[in-house]
C-alpha cells in the first residue's frame, strides 16, 4: 500500500542508504538520517508531532497585497505576473523563493529608495546569518527582479547591478577528473548515479540539461546516421548536437526506459530537479573520497571539464570546444581547457630542455 504525504513543500532524498527530508524552498534539513524504506519516512512525516511542528514553523505566504512601490509588492508581481520568472528552471525558482523569504522583513521598503550601499549591507549581514554563497544568490535574485522591473518602469534603476560576490569562487573548482578516478566510478557507481555522470563525461552537458534530457532527444543523425543528442540548452538557448561516442552509446542503449527522461532515480522515476540529482551524486562521490577511492574536488560538473579537456588534447581548438559544450563564446572553451594549455607549455619547456 502506498502511503501519501500529508505535508507539502518537502523534498525526500535518499543518500548513502539513508533518507533525509528537506524543506524544498530553503534546503533546510527537517528529518534524517532515517533508515528503512520510503514508507517509513512518509510515516515519520505524517506523525502528528511533525505535522504540528511543521505548521508552527512554516513561513507565512506572501500577503495578498502590499503597498504599491514596496519590495513586497514587487516580489509578488515578479513571482505571479512576470513572464521572465515563469521561464526560469525549477531549481532557480527555489533559490529565488529562499532569497525572497530571507528578505521578508524588508518587504515594507520602497524599491526606489533602496541604494547600492544598503544592498551591500544586506548582503554582508546575509553572509553572516546564512553563508556567503546564499548571500550572492539572494543578490542575484534581487538583481534579476529589479532588471525586469526597470524594463516595465516599476523602478527607475537597478541598484543591485555590479555588486561584488561575497563568496570567492575557487578558479580550480570543478576540476578535470584523473583517469583512475573516472575508471573507479564508472566501474562501481550504481546505474541511477552513473547515468548522469556518463552523459556529463561523454556529452559535456550541465546538470540542468542532463536532468531534462529525454529519450526523444537521442537518436540517429538525420544525415550522417550516427547516434547523437540534439537539444536546445537551457542556459543559453543554443541548438547543440553532440555525437554519442561508442562507450556512451553502448551504455545508453543498455538502459531501461522507465520514464520520458534518460536519467532517473533509483526507483525509475525522473529526478524532481537538478538539485536533487546533484545532491545524490555529490553524496556518493564524497563517500568514495572518504574511503580513499577518489580524490577531493570531484564533481558532476567536473566531468564537463574532463569532456572539454579530452577534446582539446585530441586537437580541437577553443572554438570547437566551445561549440561542443554548447557555449556561444570561445572564451568558455578557453575557460574549460586553460589547464590543458598550461600542460602543453610545460611539455614544450621540458622537450626544449631535452634537446639541449
TrEMBL record:
GO terms for molecular function: DNA binding. It comes from the Bacteria. Keywords: DNA recombination, DNA-binding. GO terms for biological process: DNA integration; DNA recombination. PROSITE patterns: TYR_RECOMBINASE. Residues 169-351 form the Tyr recombinase domain. CDD domains: DNA_BRE_C. This is Phage integrase family protein.
